[in-house]
Specification:
The protein is 68% helix and 3% strand. By secondary structure, the chain is an all-alpha fold.
Protein backbone atom coordinates (compact mmCIF):
# COMPACT_ATOMS: atom_id res chain seq x y z
CA UNK A 1 0.00 0.00 0.00
CA UNK A 2 2.85 2.32 0.84
CA UNK A 3 4.48 1.74 -2.57
CA UNK A 4 1.25 2.64 -4.37
CA UNK A 5 0.90 5.84 -2.34
CA UNK A 6 4.43 6.96 -3.21
CA UNK A 7 3.85 6.14 -6.85
CA UNK A 8 0.57 8.05 -6.85
CA UNK A 9 2.10 11.12 -5.24
CA UNK A 10 4.94 11.23 -7.78
CA UNK A 11 2.51 11.02 -10.67
CA UNK A 12 0.28 13.65 -9.10
CA UNK A 13 3.18 16.11 -8.77
CA UNK A 14 4.17 15.46 -12.38
CA UNK A 15 0.62 16.02 -13.63
CA UNK A 16 0.37 19.25 -11.64
CA UNK A 17 3.59 20.53 -13.23
CA UNK A 18 2.40 19.63 -16.73
CA UNK A 19 -0.94 21.30 -16.05
CA UNK A 20 0.86 24.45 -14.89
CA UNK A 21 2.88 24.58 -18.11
CA UNK A 22 -0.25 24.08 -20.21
CA UNK A 23 -2.02 26.80 -18.24
CA UNK A 24 0.88 29.20 -18.84
CA UNK A 25 0.75 28.62 -22.58
CA UNK A 26 -3.01 29.08 -22.56
CA UNK A 27 -2.71 32.37 -20.67
CA UNK A 28 -0.13 33.57 -23.18
CA UNK A 29 -2.77 33.24 -25.88
CA UNK A 30 -5.81 34.39 -23.92
CA UNK A 31 -4.53 37.31 -21.84
CA UNK A 32 -4.24 39.81 -24.72
CA UNK A 33 -7.94 39.33 -25.39
CA UNK A 34 -8.80 40.88 -22.01
CA UNK A 35 -8.12 44.31 -23.46
CA UNK A 36 -10.89 43.82 -26.00
CA UNK A 37 -13.27 42.44 -23.36
CA UNK A 38 -12.67 45.31 -20.93
CA UNK A 39 -13.14 47.93 -23.61
CA UNK A 40 -16.28 46.27 -24.99
CA UNK A 41 -17.75 46.10 -21.48
CA UNK A 42 -17.13 49.81 -21.00
CA UNK A 43 -14.94 49.19 -17.95
CA UNK A 44 -11.98 51.12 -19.35
CA UNK A 45 -12.03 54.32 -21.33
CA UNK A 46 -9.24 54.97 -23.80
CA UNK A 47 -8.19 58.44 -24.86
CA UNK A 48 -7.97 58.59 -28.65
CA UNK A 49 -5.77 61.03 -30.50
CA UNK A 50 -7.28 62.63 -33.56
CA UNK A 51 -5.47 62.15 -36.82
CA UNK A 52 -3.86 65.24 -38.27
CA UNK A 53 -5.78 66.91 -41.05
CA UNK A 54 -3.53 66.85 -44.09
CA UNK A 55 -5.24 69.88 -45.57
CA UNK A 56 -4.79 72.04 -42.48
CA UNK A 57 -1.17 70.88 -42.11
CA UNK A 58 -0.45 71.93 -45.67
CA UNK A 59 -1.35 75.53 -44.90
CA UNK A 60 0.02 75.56 -41.37
CA UNK A 61 3.15 77.77 -41.32
CA UNK A 62 4.43 75.90 -38.22
CA UNK A 63 4.73 72.75 -40.28
CA UNK A 64 7.07 74.58 -42.65
CA UNK A 65 9.07 75.82 -39.68
CA UNK A 66 9.59 72.32 -38.30
CA UNK A 67 10.62 71.08 -41.70
CA UNK A 68 13.25 73.81 -41.69
CA UNK A 69 14.40 72.83 -38.18
CA UNK A 70 14.78 69.25 -39.28
CA UNK A 71 16.81 70.47 -42.21
CA UNK A 72 19.31 72.14 -39.87
CA UNK A 73 17.90 75.65 -39.33
CA UNK A 74 18.50 76.68 -35.72
CA UNK A 75 15.61 77.86 -33.57
CA UNK A 76 15.07 79.03 -30.02
CA UNK A 77 14.29 76.72 -27.11
CA UNK A 78 13.57 77.84 -23.54
CA UNK A 79 14.45 74.35 -22.25
CA UNK A 80 17.70 74.25 -20.29
CA UNK A 81 19.84 71.29 -19.37
CA UNK A 82 20.32 68.02 -21.20
CA UNK A 83 20.08 68.19 -25.01
CA UNK A 84 19.33 71.94 -24.94
CA UNK A 85 18.47 73.23 -28.39
CA UNK A 86 17.76 69.79 -29.87
CA UNK A 87 14.30 70.39 -31.25
CA UNK A 88 14.14 67.38 -33.55
CA UNK A 89 16.33 64.30 -33.26
CA UNK A 90 16.54 62.45 -36.56
CA UNK A 91 17.85 59.37 -34.74
CA UNK A 92 14.29 58.59 -33.74
CA UNK A 93 13.40 57.72 -37.30
CA UNK A 94 16.50 55.53 -37.65
CA UNK A 95 15.60 53.76 -34.40
CA UNK A 96 12.03 53.17 -35.55
CA UNK A 97 13.14 51.73 -38.89
CA UNK A 98 15.67 49.44 -37.17
CA UNK A 99 13.23 48.28 -34.51
CA UNK A 100 10.34 47.70 -36.90
CA UNK A 101 12.62 46.32 -39.60
CA UNK A 102 15.57 43.98 -38.90
CA UNK A 103 14.91 43.53 -35.16
CA UNK A 104 11.24 42.77 -35.76
CA UNK A 105 11.82 40.44 -38.71
CA UNK A 106 14.85 38.48 -37.50
CA UNK A 107 13.59 38.26 -33.92
CA UNK A 108 10.22 36.86 -34.98
CA UNK A 109 11.91 34.55 -37.51
CA UNK A 110 14.21 33.13 -34.83
CA UNK A 111 11.34 32.40 -32.45
CA UNK A 112 9.29 30.77 -35.21
CA UNK A 113 12.33 28.74 -36.36
CA UNK A 114 12.83 27.36 -32.85
CA UNK A 115 9.15 26.42 -32.57
CA UNK A 116 9.32 24.68 -35.96
CA UNK A 117 12.53 22.85 -34.97
CA UNK A 118 10.90 21.65 -31.74
CA UNK A 119 7.84 20.42 -33.65
CA UNK A 120 9.95 18.63 -36.27
CA UNK A 121 12.12 17.00 -33.62
CA UNK A 122 9.11 15.80 -31.66
CA UNK A 123 7.36 14.46 -34.76
CA UNK A 124 10.44 12.72 -36.19
CA UNK A 125 12.16 11.44 -33.04
CA UNK A 126 9.47 11.76 -30.43
CA UNK A 127 10.16 12.10 -26.73
CA UNK A 128 13.54 10.94 -25.43
CA UNK A 129 12.41 8.10 -23.19
CA UNK A 130 14.52 6.41 -20.56
CA UNK A 131 16.01 3.04 -21.39
CA UNK A 132 15.46 1.90 -17.81
CA UNK A 133 13.68 3.13 -14.71
CA UNK A 134 15.22 1.65 -11.59
CA UNK A 135 12.63 2.91 -9.13
CA UNK A 136 15.39 4.43 -7.01
CA UNK A 137 15.95 8.18 -6.93
CA UNK A 138 18.93 10.46 -6.44
CA UNK A 139 18.59 13.91 -4.88
CA UNK A 140 19.48 16.48 -7.56
CA UNK A 141 17.87 19.87 -6.85
CA UNK A 142 17.61 21.34 -3.33
CA UNK A 143 14.33 23.02 -2.39
CA UNK A 144 15.83 26.53 -2.52
CA UNK A 145 17.20 26.05 -6.03
CA UNK A 146 13.88 24.65 -7.24
CA UNK A 147 11.99 27.59 -5.75
CA UNK A 148 14.45 30.02 -7.34
CA UNK A 149 14.13 28.28 -10.69
CA UNK A 150 10.32 28.51 -10.74
CA UNK A 151 10.43 32.09 -9.46
CA UNK A 152 12.68 33.17 -12.35
CA UNK A 153 10.81 30.99 -14.87
CA UNK A 154 7.37 32.39 -14.01
CA UNK A 155 8.59 35.98 -14.10
CA UNK A 156 10.37 35.35 -17.41
CA UNK A 157 7.18 33.97 -18.98
CA UNK A 158 5.14 36.97 -17.79
CA UNK A 159 7.80 39.41 -19.03
CA UNK A 160 8.00 37.56 -22.36
CA UNK A 161 4.23 37.73 -22.89
CA UNK A 162 4.00 41.42 -21.98
CA UNK A 163 7.18 42.34 -23.86
CA UNK A 164 6.15 40.54 -27.06
CA UNK A 165 2.72 42.18 -26.79
CA UNK A 166 4.35 45.61 -26.77
CA UNK A 167 6.85 44.68 -29.47
CA UNK A 168 4.45 43.10 -31.95
CA UNK A 169 1.18 44.62 -30.76
CA UNK A 170 0.72 47.18 -33.51
CA UNK A 171 1.34 44.60 -36.24
CA UNK A 172 -0.37 41.54 -34.77
CA UNK A 173 -2.74 42.48 -31.93
CA UNK A 174 -4.36 45.61 -33.35
CA UNK A 175 -5.77 43.67 -36.35
CA UNK A 176 -7.08 41.09 -33.86
CA UNK A 177 -8.29 43.30 -30.99
CA UNK A 178 -8.79 46.65 -32.65
CA UNK A 179 -7.04 49.85 -31.56
CA UNK A 180 -9.18 50.29 -28.45
CA UNK A 181 -8.77 46.71 -27.27
CA UNK A 182 -5.02 46.80 -27.80
CA UNK A 183 -4.77 50.15 -26.02
CA UNK A 184 -6.42 48.65 -22.92
CA UNK A 185 -4.15 45.62 -23.04
CA UNK A 186 -1.07 47.84 -23.50
CA UNK A 187 -2.10 49.97 -20.52
CA UNK A 188 -2.03 46.79 -18.46
CA UNK A 189 1.09 45.12 -19.87
CA UNK A 190 3.39 48.15 -19.72
CA UNK A 191 3.30 48.67 -15.92
CA UNK A 192 3.34 44.91 -15.31
CA UNK A 193 6.43 44.60 -17.49
CA UNK A 194 8.12 47.52 -15.76
CA UNK A 195 7.34 46.55 -12.17
CA UNK A 196 8.34 42.90 -12.56
CA UNK A 197 11.62 43.71 -14.30
CA UNK A 198 13.65 44.41 -11.16
CA UNK A 199 12.42 41.34 -9.19
CA UNK A 200 13.24 39.21 -12.24
CA UNK A 201 16.70 40.74 -12.59
CA UNK A 202 17.44 40.03 -8.91
CA UNK A 203 16.40 36.37 -9.26
CA UNK A 204 18.31 35.97 -12.52
CA UNK A 205 21.52 37.42 -11.10
CA UNK A 206 21.29 35.16 -8.03
CA UNK A 207 20.76 32.13 -10.29
CA UNK A 208 23.78 33.01 -12.42
CA UNK A 209 25.99 33.45 -9.36
CA UNK A 210 24.94 30.12 -7.86
CA UNK A 211 25.72 28.03 -10.94
CA UNK A 212 28.58 29.91 -12.58
CA UNK A 213 31.42 27.82 -11.15
CA UNK A 214 29.85 24.61 -12.50
CA UNK A 215 29.39 25.90 -16.03
CA UNK A 216 32.89 25.95 -17.49
CA UNK A 217 33.40 23.48 -20.33
CA UNK A 218 35.58 20.44 -19.69
CA UNK A 219 37.08 17.85 -22.00
CA UNK A 220 34.09 15.49 -21.86
CA UNK A 221 31.81 18.37 -22.84
CA UNK A 222 33.43 18.52 -26.26
CA UNK A 223 32.62 14.84 -26.75
CA UNK A 224 29.01 15.69 -25.94
CA UNK A 225 29.06 18.56 -28.45
CA UNK A 226 30.66 16.40 -31.12
CA UNK A 227 27.76 13.98 -30.95
CA UNK A 228 25.23 16.83 -30.57
CA UNK A 229 24.05 15.42 -27.28
CA UNK A 230 23.56 11.91 -28.66
CA UNK A 231 21.81 12.81 -31.92
CA UNK A 232 24.85 11.43 -33.75
CA UNK A 233 26.00 7.95 -32.75
CA UNK A 234 24.42 5.02 -30.98
CA UNK A 235 25.09 5.95 -27.36
CA UNK A 236 24.52 8.90 -25.08
CA UNK A 237 27.72 10.96 -24.55
CA UNK A 238 29.17 11.37 -21.05
CA UNK A 239 28.36 14.44 -18.99
CA UNK A 240 28.62 15.65 -15.42
CA UNK A 241 25.97 17.35 -13.32
CA UNK A 242 25.34 19.66 -16.28
CA UNK A 243 25.84 18.58 -19.87
CA UNK A 244 27.43 20.79 -22.51
CA UNK A 245 24.07 21.89 -23.87
CA UNK A 246 22.97 23.10 -20.45
CA UNK A 247 26.27 24.94 -20.03
CA UNK A 248 25.88 26.71 -23.37
CA UNK A 249 22.34 27.63 -22.38
CA UNK A 250 23.71 29.06 -19.14
CA UNK A 251 26.27 31.28 -20.87
CA UNK A 252 23.68 32.54 -23.34
CA UNK A 253 21.51 33.35 -20.34
CA UNK A 254 24.49 34.90 -18.56
CA UNK A 255 25.54 37.35 -21.27
CA UNK A 256 22.00 37.85 -22.51
CA UNK A 257 20.81 38.44 -18.96
CA UNK A 258 23.49 41.09 -18.42
CA UNK A 259 22.51 42.87 -21.64
CA UNK A 260 18.83 42.56 -20.73
CA UNK A 261 19.34 43.90 -17.21
CA UNK A 262 21.60 46.82 -18.16
CA UNK A 263 19.45 47.92 -21.09
CA UNK A 264 16.28 47.53 -19.06
CA UNK A 265 17.75 49.62 -16.24
CA UNK A 266 18.43 52.58 -18.54
CA UNK A 267 14.96 52.26 -20.04
CA UNK A 268 13.28 52.11 -16.64
CA UNK A 269 15.12 55.17 -15.32
CA UNK A 270 15.42 57.66 -18.19
CA UNK A 271 15.87 60.59 -15.78
CA UNK A 272 19.39 59.48 -14.85
CA UNK A 273 20.88 61.61 -17.61
CA UNK A 274 20.55 59.24 -20.56
CA UNK A 275 20.10 61.10 -23.83
CA UNK A 276 17.68 60.06 -26.51
CA UNK A 277 20.23 58.46 -28.83
CA UNK A 278 21.46 56.28 -25.93
CA UNK A 279 17.87 55.37 -25.01
CA UNK A 280 17.25 54.30 -28.59
CA UNK A 281 20.42 52.20 -28.54
CA UNK A 282 19.44 50.45 -25.29
CA UNK A 283 15.95 49.81 -26.65
CA UNK A 284 17.41 47.99 -29.67
CA UNK A 285 19.72 45.99 -27.37
CA UNK A 286 16.82 45.11 -25.08
CA UNK A 287 14.49 44.06 -27.90
CA UNK A 288 17.12 41.98 -29.71
CA UNK A 289 18.38 40.25 -26.57
CA UNK A 290 14.86 39.55 -25.34
CA UNK A 291 13.84 37.71 -28.48
CA UNK A 292 17.10 35.75 -28.55
CA UNK A 293 16.56 34.60 -24.97
CA UNK A 294 12.89 33.80 -25.60
CA UNK A 295 13.91 31.56 -28.50
CA UNK A 296 16.57 29.83 -26.38
CA UNK A 297 14.24 29.41 -23.41
CA UNK A 298 11.58 27.82 -25.63
CA UNK A 299 14.06 25.04 -26.39
CA UNK A 300 14.92 24.77 -22.70
CA UNK A 301 11.25 24.49 -21.74
CA UNK A 302 10.65 21.74 -24.26
CA UNK A 303 13.70 19.66 -23.29
CA UNK A 304 13.05 20.18 -19.59
CA UNK A 305 9.41 19.12 -19.76
CA UNK A 306 8.02 17.08 -22.65
CA UNK A 307 11.20 16.45 -24.62
CA UNK A 308 13.21 14.36 -22.16
CA UNK A 309 11.58 11.85 -19.85
CA UNK A 310 12.57 12.32 -16.22
CA UNK A 311 13.93 15.87 -16.51
CA UNK A 312 10.85 17.64 -15.18
CA UNK A 313 10.57 15.24 -12.25
CA UNK A 314 13.86 16.54 -10.90
CA UNK A 315 12.76 20.16 -10.86
CA UNK A 316 9.36 19.27 -9.39
CA UNK A 317 10.32 16.75 -6.72
CA UNK A 318 14.04 17.48 -6.32
CA UNK A 319 15.06 13.92 -7.21
CA UNK A 320 15.57 11.98 -10.42
CA UNK A 321 15.45 8.30 -11.15
CA UNK A 322 18.84 6.59 -11.15
CA UNK A 323 18.13 5.53 -14.73
CA UNK A 324 17.87 9.18 -15.78
CA UNK A 325 21.09 10.07 -13.93
CA UNK A 326 22.95 7.11 -15.43
CA UNK A 327 21.75 7.80 -18.97
CA UNK A 328 22.05 11.60 -19.11
CA UNK A 329 24.64 12.46 -16.44
CA UNK A 330 26.81 9.37 -16.12
CA UNK A 331 29.85 11.17 -14.64
CA UNK A 332 27.75 12.80 -11.94
CA UNK A 333 25.99 9.47 -11.33
CA UNK A 334 29.33 7.69 -10.83
CA UNK A 335 30.43 10.46 -8.49
CA UNK A 336 27.30 10.10 -6.36
CA UNK A 337 27.60 6.32 -6.38
CA UNK A 338 31.26 6.54 -5.39
CA UNK A 339 32.29 4.76 -8.57
CA UNK A 340 30.25 1.67 -7.71
CA UNK A 341 27.95 0.26 -10.38
CA UNK A 342 24.22 0.39 -9.75
CA UNK A 343 22.52 -2.69 -8.32
CA UNK A 344 18.87 -3.50 -7.85
CA UNK A 345 19.28 -4.21 -4.15
CA UNK A 346 21.25 -1.22 -2.88
CA UNK A 347 20.25 2.40 -3.56
CA UNK A 348 22.93 5.02 -4.14
CA UNK A 349 24.40 6.88 -1.16
CA UNK A 350 22.07 9.77 -0.43
CA UNK A 351 19.40 8.33 -2.71
CA UNK A 352 15.86 7.52 -1.71
CA UNK A 353 13.77 4.57 -2.71
CA UNK A 354 10.69 4.96 -4.82
CA UNK A 355 8.28 2.66 -6.52
CA UNK A 356 9.27 1.25 -9.90
CA UNK A 357 7.30 2.69 -12.79
Amino acid sequence: MRVKEIKGKRRKRLYVALAAIALGLLLAMVLPLTGYVLHSAGLVQVAQAQDADDKDEAVNPRAEYWRAVRGGVEGYSAVSGQETGVLIQDGGQNWRETRNGPVFFYGASLIIAVLVAIAVKHIVRGRDTLELRTGRTIARWPAFERALHWYVAILFIILAITGLSLMFGRAMLIPLLGKEGFAVWAQFTKPVHDYLALPFAAGLILTLLIYMRKMFLQSHDFVWLKSVGGLIGDRHPPSGFFNAGEKIFFWLLFFGGIALTVSGFFMLFPNLGTERDAMQFWNIVHSSTSMLLIAVVLGHIYLGSFGVEGALEGMVTGSVDEGFAHEHHILWYDEVKGGAPATDSSPAPGATTAAPT
